[in-house]
Amino acid sequence: MVDLREMLARLNAQTVRFDVGQGGGAPSLTTSDVAAALGMVPAGLGREVMEAVYLPDGAIRHRGKLAEAVLAIVRPEFTRRARALAEAEDDLSFSKEMVGLSRRSPSDAQRRILRDREAAVALAREQAWPKNTYQHLSRMVAAVVLELTSGNRCPACLGAGIVNDMGCKDCRCTGIEPTPDRRRALTIDCDPSDYAKRWKAVFEWLLAEMHQAGEIAACQFARVLSEHEPRRGA
Ligand SMILES: [Zn+2]
């Protein structure tokens, strides 16, 4: 497996001189090989994430196109959740009206329906994203890119899982940051309690989607590069 970060670093103007052989007569890839391979990764969210995460200055240079690609996946998701809430509310008010029309007190079945519909509204409300999601998106995307670039290593053991030859208590030796919520809240400039209530779900959805899309693009990029390498050596 090639080192994607190093490969993509060759595309940076300052490091173009990298493209000399790596010694030992091993076949090496040139800058134009790397650029061509990158060109074969389908355009879209994955490629934008990969470039933002791996390319030096990528986060800054790709901000605009990345924001567009993110908006394209956020919009249908935001709309789907908002519609689910509107429909659940509509169902509830319809059922209340129907029950209200009957002259007798509500039957057990009617009560059950009302209870179910109220629960459905509560659930949909919980899952709906804040109305001002679009306005907060660019800060969240920047925070996700930062996290994908630097990883979420446990700050106590720096990802090693061990502190002073003892298992790290903070992360239980996993090396993964145990409670990233506070850091995430501060990175997106948001009060931690507000983050937990309103933004955590959106952020985690975004992180998962961007991470997955970026990984798929990175695999495609690595595959194109590895197909390229032996041919040059032959
Ligand atoms: Zn740790």
Structural descriptors:
9 helices, 234 residues, mainly alpha, binds zinc ion, 66% helix, two-stranded antiparallel sheet
Structural account:
66% of the residues lie in helices and 2% in strands. The protein is mostly helical. The protein has a domain at 4-63 and 215-233. The protein has a two-stranded antiparallel sheet with strand order 1-2. Strand 1 and strand 2 form a beta hairpin. Zinc ion is lined by residues 154, 156-157, 161, 168, 170-171, 175.
General form: elongated
Structural class: mainly alpha
Question: In which range does the helix fraction lie?
Answer: 55-70%
Number of strand elements: 2
- Spatial order of strands in the largest sheet: 1-2
Q: Which small-molecule species are bound to the chains here?
A: zinc ion
Query: Averaging pLDDT over every residue, what do you get?
Result: 85
What can be said about this structure in brief?
66% of the residues lie in helices and 2% in strands.
